[in-house]
Amino acid sequence: MPTSSAFNTTLPSRAEDVGSFLAPSDPDLIQDLAIANRILSDQGIVDAFGHVSVRHDCDPERFLLARNMAPGTVTAEDIVQFHLDGSPIDAQGRAIYLERFIHGQIYRARPDVMAIVHSHSPTVVPFSVARDATLRPVCHMCGFLGLGAPLFEIRDSAGDATDLLIRDNALGAALAAALGEASCVLMRGHGSTVVGPSLKHAVYRAVYAEVNAKLQSEAMRLGSVNFLSAGEAATAQRNIETQVERPWGLWKARVMPSLNAA
Ligand code: MN
C-alpha cells in the first residue's frame, strides 16, 4: 500500500462499503475501463497518478473507477463501483483514490457526461498557471476545447494553503461548477479534467488536450496565434468525433498484449 505523503496525489483512502455490486448491462464496460486506463498510461496522459471513470450503464447514480493504483497496471478485477458521493460499493477493503470526488460531483452536475479522465498531463499543466494564456484549439482535432478551457482556482474555494487536491465533495462540486458545460477544465497548479459522452470520447479528448497543449505552446513561441473560431471548433468537433473508434482501436492494440498477460 502506498504511504501517505503531502506530495502524493493519490493518497490511499478507505471507506465503508455501502450497497452491493450491480453488474453493468454492457458486458464490455468493465474491460473497456481497464483498457482505457492502460491506453492513457501508454499515451503518456497519466503516469503513476491520474484516473479514468465511466458512469454505470444501469444506474446513473453510480460510476466505475479503479482502486488506488497506477493506471497502467489496471485489470478488470481492480474496478470498483462508487456512489456519486464518492462512497465505494464494493471496495472490499482495498484502498481507493482520494480524488474520486472529481468524478462523482461531475456526474452529478452533468447528466450528459458518461466518462471522465483526470490527469496531470505535463504540457497541459503550464496552461493552468500561465496568467496570460488559455488552452484553446489550434487544430481541427481539438474542437472540443471550444473557445478555451475554463480554469478552476482552488484558492477561491478553499484558501491559499491547500495541497491543491480535490479531497471532498465540496471541492468536487466547485470543480464541476468551474467546468460548467465545457469538455475540459484546467486545475491551477495541478492538472486537468476532461469529460465525454462515452469512454472513447473522454480518452480521445484527454489525449488530444495534451496534443493541443504541445502544438499551442510551439505556436506561441512563434508569435500571436490564430485559434479556431467558435464555429470552426463546433463543426470540427462534430465531425472528427464521429471517428473516435479509430484512435481507440489503434491505442487498444498497443496495450492488449500487456493486459492479456496480466
Ligand atoms: Mn490529481
Rounded to the nearest angstrom, the radius of gyration is 17 Å
Second-tier CATH architecture? 3-Layer(aba) Sandwich
Number of domains: 1
* Ligand kinds: manganese (II) ion
**What is the tally of beta strands?**
7
Sheet with the most strands, sense and barrel status: 7 strands, mixed
Approximate shape: globular
The low-confidence parts are 1-10
Bin the helical content: 25-40%
CATH class: Alpha Beta
Number of discrete helical segments? 8
Distance between the termini: 19 Å
Order of helices and strands: HEEEHEHEHHEEHHH
- The CATH topology annotation reads as L-fuculose-1-phosphate Aldolase
Strand content: 5-15%
Adjacency order of strands in the biggest sheet:
3-2-1-4-7-6-5
pLDDT average, as an integer? 94
CATH H-level homologous superfamily name: Class II aldolase/adducin N-terminal domain
Structural class, from secondary structure content? Answer: alpha+beta
Write up this protein.
The chain is globular. The protein has one domain (27-254): Class II aldolase/adducin N-terminal domain (L-fuculose-1-phosphate Aldolase, 3-Layer(aba) Sandwich), CATH 3.40.225.10. It has 8 helices and 7 strands, in the order αβββαβαβααββααα. It has 262 residues and is an alpha+beta fold. β1 and β2 (62-66) form a beta hairpin. Strands 3-2-1-4-7-6-5 form a 7-stranded mixed beta sheet, sandwiched between helices. The two termini are 19 Å apart. Mean pLDDT is 94; it is low at 1-10. Manganese (II) ion binds next to loops.
SSE layout and pairing:
Elements lengths: L28 H14 L8 E5 L6 E5 L12 E5 L17 H9 L5 E5 L5 H5 L21 E2 L2 H4 L10 H11 L4 E4 L3 E6 L2 H24 L7 H11 L4 H17 L1
Parallel strand pairs: 5-6
Antiparallel strand pairs: 1-2, 1-4, 2-3, 4-7, 6-7
Helix pairs in contact: 1-6, 1-8, 2-5
Bound molecules: manganese (II) ion.
